[in-house]
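Appendix C reproduces, verbatim, an entry submitted by the partner laboratory led by Prof. M.T., so that reviewers can inspect both the input and the predicted structure.
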Amino acid sequence: MSTAYISHTDFMKHEMGRHHPECPERIAAIEDQLIQSRLDAHLKRIDPPLASEADITRVHSEDHLAFVKSKAPSSGYSMIDGDT
């Protein structure tokens, strides 16, 4: 049995500001540790496809998708809730 490791180069573009734990440096540190520990050789790497709106609405309501889209700024950041 394999363990899937889902990653994409676009994940390195997820920058949420200086004090947020989700950052490119965290992704790089995880990758480095997987390589250094040689665990990467035991993982099945999967490059995920871009999700369509139909994919998203299989797990989220149309209202939720509309809400998130309404919060998308033309530049910078937008707070959706206390966590995001």
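The chain has two domains: 1-50, 51-84. Additional entries are available on request from the coordinating office.
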